[in-house]
Structures are given as structure tokens and as C-alpha cells.
Design a protein that fits this description.
Length: 250
């Protein structure tokens, strides 16, 4: 039976069986297969892969694996210039816009708090998430590996952390989004952009005490939700500061 030699690098090892991590290992070829399908057969979503070298030569996902190939699979590079190599998608998404899977609702809310454009609904199907990602050029955030294996998804990230606050910090560090933070600019309810408005414009939405003690307001352009710096604001500011603090080693 023909064989290939495989090696996965860095965080791609998170998806492998323990016995296969951080080593070069043999794999028998039982059928004709693309390198994309071969990689995903080990549970590694193609959205996590940035560069593939076969026998020292860069290839794309369509490459048909041959007997005796030595295949090295790399994740996205943060600081190393790999421009001479073939990247596996047309271009990075410099404008960080997300679609978030159904099991990450609190993460979606926190990212909106930080000013990111985040599409989320707790009734999304995997097919809907994939379609939105493809049509609107959004990055998929999920803890479902199978979702990231949809062919039409080009940009996605498998969230490792379990707790929502740590998920936010992980994503900011992994995607290097600190300079993109714009807290308190999006609606937590619907993702619309906020704008400053006169008090009279939202007066009918306010409780008596809010009318009495607050003068400055913002309103969502999409759904009309009113916002002001109430008693919860200091807590939310501290939360934003916590998210914005880079993780150790970043």
C-alpha cells in the first residue's frame, strides 16, 4: 500500500490524536485524494491551515497526493513573512467581520461590545452560517470542527477556550485584533451601529429616573435601542479593559 509522510505544526496539533502530535508519521493511501481532504480526515479544518509544503514545494488545497510525498502543514503565521509561498486563500480578511455559531452567543455579545461587526442568531443552522460567511466575507467563529470543513468557508477559527471571557481574549490575541477595538459603537442586541442623539429623540423610551439623571444618549441606527452611561457602564468599561490587555507572550 502506498504511503505518505505527514507533519502538522504548532496549534494544528490541537486537532490530532495525542500519538500523532508534533511528529512526522506515515499514512497509507487507500484512494485518490486531494491534500485538503487528507488534512481534514485527521480532524484539522482547512480554515486553520495557511501553508502546505509537499516535498518542500508549496501547493494549494487541490493538489492530488502522490505516493511517498512528504507533507508539512502549517497554521497562519503571525510574524513570519511567508509572501513567497502560496497562501491557500485569495487574501486575508483585513476587515474583521464575524459570523458566530449558535453555541457562542455570549462571545458574540462581548465582541459587539468591543465594536466588532458580528452576525449571530441562536437558530442558525450550519448551512446558514456557511452561506453567510461565504456571501458576506465573514470569519466563522465556532467550536464545531465539522462546520469549518464546509468547502465554501474560506476564513474561520476554531475557538479553544470554553469560558466566554477567555474566548474573547483568545480571539483578540490569535487574530491580532487589539488595534481594531472600538468599544461601545455597536448595538449588543442587533449588531447595528450606534449614533449620538438628542435626549428628546429617545425620551419616550426612558424610565422616569433615566429621564431625570441622564442627558447624553446613543441610539442604534438599526433597531432604535437607546443607550446611556448608567450604573452598569463602569462595569462594562472594566470588562473592555480586561479584554484589551494582551495575553502574556503576545
Amino acid at each position: 500500500m502506498p504511503q505518505v509522510q505527514l507533519r502538522f505544526y504548532e496549534e494544528l496539533n490541537d486537532f490530532l490524536a495525542p500519538a500523532l502530535r508534533k511528529i512526522t508519521f506515515p499514512h497509507e493511501l487507500t484512494r485518490r485524494t486531494s491534500v485538503k481532504d487528507l488534512i481534514e480526515s485527521f480532524g484539522v479544518p482547512h480554515t486553520e491551515v495557511e501553508v502546505i509544503l509537499v516535498n518542500g514545494r508549496s501547493v494549494d488545497f487541490s493538489y492530488i497526493v502522490q505516493a511517498d510525498d512528504r507533507i508539512s502543514v502549517y497554521p497562519a503565521f503571525e510574524s513570519l513573512d511567508v509572501s513567497p509561498l502560496i497562501r491557500l486563500r485569495d487574501k486575508p480578511l483585513r476587515d474583521p467581520r464575524f459570523v458566530v455559531d449558535v453555541n457562542l452567543g455570549q462571545l458574540a455579545r462581548y465582541l459587539r461590545l468591543l465594536g466588532f461587526d458580528v452576525v449571530y442568531r441562536n437558530s442558525f443552522t450550519d448551512r446558514e452560517v456557511a452561506r453567510i460567511a461565504s456571501e458576506e466575507k465573514r470569519i466563522v467563529l465556532t467550536r464545531d470542527r465539522a462546520l469549518l470543513q464546509h468547502r465554501i468557508i474560506t476564513h474561520g477559527y476554531f475557538v479553544r477556550a470554553v469560558k466566554p471571557r477567555e474566548q474573547v481574549r483568545e480571539i483578540l490575541a490569535r487574530l491580532d485584533l487589539y488595534r481594531a477595538l472600538r468599544p461601545f459603537t455597536r448595538c449588543l442586541r442587533c449588531n447595528g451601529e450606534l449614533e449620538d442623539v438628542d435626549k428628546e429623540t429617545v425620551l419616550h423610551q426612558l424610565e422616569p429616573k433615566t429621564r431625570k439623571y441622564y442627558e447624553r444618549f446613543r441610539r442604534c441606527k438599526a433597531c432604535g435601542q437607546a443607550y446611556w452611561k448608567g450604573s452598569h457602564f463602569n462595569r462594562m468599561e472594566k470588562l473592555c479593559d480586561y479584554f484589551a490587555a494582551p495575553l502574556a507572550g503576545n
